[in-house]
Structure formats: structure tokens, C-alpha cells
Amino acid sequence: MSARAGLQVREIELELIRQGPSHNQLVSPLTPYLALSGRHEACTIHLPFEHARLMDRLQALRYDPGREGSRPGALQELAEAMGALLGAVPGLLADLCTDGGKRLTHVKLIFSSQELSLLPFELARSPRGFPGEGRPLFLQADGPLSISRQTRCAQRGTDWRATPKILFAWSGVEPELVKAHLQALRLALAPQLRDERKHLRDHITVLEQATWQDIEQACRRTSFTHVHLLAHGVVVRDSGDERFGLALSAARGAGGSIDRVSADRLACALRIPASGGSRSQPIVVSIAACDSGQQRAVLLPGGSLAHTLHEEGVPLVVASQFPLTYEGSVRMTEILYAGLLRGDDPRAVLHAVRCALAGTTHRNHDWASLLAYLAVPDDLEEQLLHVRYEAAQRTTTAAMDRARGPIEEPPADPDEAKAAFELGIEGLDHAIQPLEALARSAPRSEAAMRDVVRSFNFIGAARKRMAEFLHMRATRVAAEATGRSKREHECLVAAHDAYRAALGRAPRGTESWRAGYNTLALGRVLGDPLAYELWCTVHYGLGQDHHATAVDTAWNLSTRIVIDLLALGETALVTFVSSRSPGYSPAASARAAAQELARRCGFRDAEHRSTRRELERYVEWWRRPLGDERARLAKELLESLVPPEETPAPPPAAEPEQPRTVSRRRRRPRGE
């Protein structure tokens, strides 16, 4: 599934080519272009404009007060002309009409001729015979269509699975607009942050009044996955040619107040060789600047900001081919980053952004101004599936931390404490549900199955924590202190089901052993007898896991401790194991595993902390269903995992709420 809401994406390629170099060709009805659509027969098309006429119509879309009256006519004329141009390709019509509107259809427009970049294809009105006849082609709800551009030499093999790290660089715009864009980025990231005040700055770097040198140095130090640029578009003159560039702040000591940064210079800054011998490789660059996707000149080699960055290896560049309103730029940023950071298909995200811009106001054409250059790898579906799993797990982890807060530090007022707890539990349940739906609907490919198994294990852990929170809350309220509540029982059952789902899909290895011991433990807590066959599978599998990494070995030791703890008091099981491993003692084996885990891991390592938390459940929460003998051994093991000389580090000092910011004012030389 490509889109979060269940909307699948199919892709149609439309390639337009002509003879000669990519530059030095004016728009002319006399120039033939070869149109290739899918597997259909190629056809020849001609552009419907002379160059001067097209430039005049495009100028009318620039919100010039002196030409406000000509804007509606220019919009209509260009929309009909672009629709007629696309309608002249029979193969495109055939491809668009074969799906019946069941999926999002993405039209990938491929060309390298510079004069074609001038044409506002995104504005096209659906021609006769096309879906949604007479309406904007890329705004319709029935049979939704999306569009992006791609150059013939675009790089497609990029990995989209990196953890988000955003560079937000702005210059020369109003503070209110900067705050709105920063807020949009913050809201997109916030659901995945365990503590927004502490961790937001780890994911967003802000450059205030950014210079070209600031951006270059930032990209040299850090490999950003997303770059968001907020500035004014400006004309850059080079060898008598004019193109649109970016108005950044002038470097210290340079003449003038702004630096007119061309597309080539911006590409050099964003794709600079980084530390470690690699090259800075952002996956997404969004440019909230007027005319950042506008070609303007066609006589000399070179393209628009968006075109050039895409050719230089940025897979997704989002820009505007006309002036963009302030409201539209903020709305674009909100929806674009919320979708991309969540792991939605970028083609579906672009369609959502365009539709949202169309609904913002009827007084502008931001929806038509939106322009995107996009090149996706062949395995995009598998990569995005991994991104969605990681994003959903970070969101669930953050929700667990927020749910724990009202339990550990409840408000003084009982009603406020109860309301805060219920809000945290509801938030955790809401965060787990998308991950559950994702794991159950995932394809059964080998690559996807690894993420599915990890996700089911994670879902089991989250549901188990939710049940624990309910138990902890109940012990603080006398009226609810007797017995296990219905909600707690349901969470334990859901956790048990998730671990069993992971166990049924996992190959032999660490994830399988973790699913196995949790299935055994929760089965016993829910009243089932210990499953001896599964216990033996996990027990002997741990001893034969010869290819485990150092981290896997630590997790396997943690599993060994709990497996031995469960075997305590199971006479028939211990007798059987002793017949194959003379001298086997659950208590002695658990003590040895705990000693080895303490030797391998520090007090703050994830394996160490997870094991202590699990043992605490046997001591307190599960003492009644699992018995006092296991509780006593768990308490002994718990004490052995916290050496007397090792104490937890003090909590870190509170950090500023704002993301990390590099300000020009902070770089003043001494003495200023």
C-alpha cells in the first residue's frame, strides 16, 4: 500500500523528446516533439504557443496589480492549452482510463528540453475523453491524478530509509512567516519525539538569515535528509542570460545586503563533500520561494533551481513555478512534511498538497504553482514500508513516555490526575493502532517480513506496557485495587496475540526468541500452562544461535534469564532438560546469564534496562499469577544487575525548547 489512507499508486510515464541540445530552443508550434507513453505507439505533437505569447501569458500569473484583470483569462487559456497538449497523446488517454479510478494515478513527465520547463502542465484542464472532463486534471477526486517532472538523467537509486534530519534555512523574510514554517516542521516531527523539548533540536537545524556559506558548512558537517529553504526569489544575471535564483544573506565582508545565489551555486552547497568522505545527499529539498521552479531563460545551458537540484541528484525537489502566497507556502510545508515524515508515498503526498492548496482560497492559484521533480527507486514500496514502521514505532515510543508521566508524577488534584491518565492511555492506544494495521496488511516479501516481525514484537511490548500502566494506576486507587481490570486483561491478550503473530512469521534468530519468551510469559500470566514444546524451541535455539551479533548476544542473554525464570517449579520440564543437559538448574542458569549480561552491558544500555524492567514485573505485577518462588528469584537477579558501585546518572539539565539555531549574530568576532 502506497498511501497511508489505503490509496494505492500506479505510475504512468510520458516522455517528450526532440532533436538537438537541451538549450537554445524557443517555444514554437513548428518544433516537433516525440511523445512516448508507456508501451503505446509513439506520436508527434506540437506546442500550441509561440515563445513570446507563452511568456506574456505566464507574466499575467504573477499577481501584478497592473495586470490583475488579465489573470483569469490567462489561467483559462493556459489550462485549456495544456489539457489539449496532453490530450494529443492517445497512449496517455488509454493508460488513464484503464484503472477505473481505483488507485491514485501518477503521471511522470520526463523531459530535458529547457523550453518544456516553461509550460505549466500542472495547470491542465481535463480534455475531452479524459477523466473529469472540463475540470482541472490534477485536482479531481474521482480517479485522482498526480503529476511530477523528471529529467532523463535523474538519479533514482537513493535510499529513503534514513532517520529524518532537517535543515531549515531562511533569509530576508518576515519573522511571522519564519515562525509559521518552523511550527509546521515542528508539528510534523512532534508525534515521533519522546520529549519535544529535549529532542527537537536533534532533528531540526535552523540557519537564521542564512548565507550560502552557512548552508555549505552545515551540509559539510551533517548529512541532512530534508532541506527546507525559505527566502525570496530573485533574478540572477549570467552572461547576458536571466534566471531565477535565491536571495540569501550576503557573507560578512561582501558588498550588498543580499547574495543572489544561482541554481548551480545552491546545488554545490547542498551536495558538498561531507565528513567521512561521503557526499551530502538530501532526499528532499523544498523551496518556499517565488519562481523557484520557473525556467525563464532557455538560450544557455542551465535550468531552474528545482530542475538543477534534481539533475544534481536530489530525488524530490518541491518548488513553485509562479509567485507563491505566504498562506500557501505554510500550508504546503505542513502537509508535505507531515506526510513524508510519516512515510507516505511522495506521489500521494504531492496530490494531497495540491488539493489542499486548491481548497485554501479561490483568490490565488498556488495549487497550479506547485511543481515537483521526482525520481523514485524501483523498490520504493519496500523502502517506504520500512520508513512507516520506523515512524510508527517512534510515535508509539513517544506516546508510551507521555502515558507514563501522569502515573509517575500525577497532578495533586485527583480529578486532574485521572483525566491526565486517561488522556495518556488514549494517546498510546491511538498511536499503536496504525502500527497494528500496517503489520497486518504488509506484503509477505522477505524484505518486508523483517519489519513485520519487529513490528509485531514492538506492538506486543507496547500493549504490555499499556496493561502495566493500567495496573500501576489501579494500585493507586483503592476502589480499583482488587483483581485485574477488563481493560488490563484485554491489553495483555492483545500483547499475547501480537507476540504469537511475530513468532509465526519470524525465522530463527533474536526476534524469534524474543517473541517466543514473551508468548510463554504472557500465556502463563493469562492462566495457560507453560508450553513445554515452545519453551524447548527457544531454549535450545538460544544455544545454537552461532551467528548472533554482539547486540543480539546481549538480547539472547536477556531472553535466557526469563526462559530460566519460567522453568522454575516446572518439574517435568526440568527433568527432561536435565536428561539432555546434566546438572541443569533454572536458578543457576538464570544467575549465570544475569552475571554475563552485567559484564557485557552497562547500566544504561537498552538490553540491561529492558531486562530489569521485565524482572520488576515478576517481582511486583506478576507475583500473584506466577508465584512467590519466581518473584524471589527475579528480585535476586534484579539486584545482581545493579552493582552497588554503579548508580544512575543524574537527569540531564533542561534544554531549550527551540531547535538548534545558527545565527549570524553569534558569529561576531571578539571585540565587536
Task: Give a written overview of the molecule.
It is a single chain. The chain is of the alpha/beta class. Helix content is 48%, strand content 12%. The protein is built from 23 helices and 15 strands. It has helices at residues 51-59, 71-87, 90-96, 175-189, 196-199, 212-221, 263-270, 305-311, 326-342, 346-360, 366-369, 380-408, 414-441, 446-475, 486-505, 510-525, 532-543, 550-567, 571-580, 586-600, 606-621, 623-626, 628-640, and strands at 9-17, 32-37, 43-46, 104-110, 145-150, 166-170, 204-207, 226-230, 232-238, 241-249, 258-261, 284-288, 316-320, 370-374, 660-662. The strands form three sheets. It has a seven-stranded mixed beta sheet with strand order 14-13-12-8-6-7-15, with helices on both faces. Strand 10 and strand 11 form a beta hairpin. Helix 14 packs parallel to helix 16. The chain is elongated and about 90 Å long. Residues 1-5, 644-648, 653-657 and 663-672 have low confidence and may be disordered.
